[in-house]
Amino acid sequence: MLLCLKLQGDNIKLSQNSNFYINQHSNGLVFIGSRDGLNLYNGQETKVYKPSSHNILGRISQSQFFEDDSSNVWFANYTGVNVYINEKDDFQNFQFSSPDSDSLIVSDYRVVHLEN
């Protein structure tokens, strides 16, 4: 499936040109996952979230976005699972421990799925 999206406004600056996953939140925000972080478009301007400046694990979005019942948005990348907390405009993130030891798994996160 090919999706074409025209972003309009004077302050449209995506973190980069390669953007993989796009999802529109129930409140109208558009989440755009890229190789360089997360772009959030509100209809007029884009806000860029990068690991170097926000509480977000990893750079490359590696899954679709999933909105939960609290309007938070979940997504995975190679480093972990992130959730965008809508009310705080901030992130919480998760990494899992290896079943064989207490060490954190820090690579190869691929999929996140929430059941309704």
- Averaged pLDDT: 77
The N- and C-terminal alpha carbons lie at a distance of: 25 Å
Q: What general outline do the C-alpha atoms trace? A: globular
Strand content: 25-35%
Q: What is the number of helical segments per DSSP (H or I, 4+ residues)?
A: 0
β-strand number: 8
User: Radius of gyration, rounded?
Assistant: 14 Å
H/E topology pattern: EEEEEEEE
Indicate the low-confidence ranges by residue numbers.
none
Structural class: mainly beta
Give a quick set of tags describing it.
single chain; 116 residues; mainly beta; four-stranded antiparallel β-sheet; globular
What can you see in these coordinates?
This protein is mainly β and 116 residues long. It has no helices and eight strands. It has strands at 19-24, 30-34, 37-41, 46-49, 66-67, 73-76, 81-85, 90-94. A four-stranded antiparallel sheet has the order 1-2-3-4, with no helix packed on it. A four-stranded antiparallel sheet has the order 5-6-7-8, with no helix packed on it. A hairpin with a 2-residue loop joins strand 2 and strand 3. The mean pLDDT is 77.
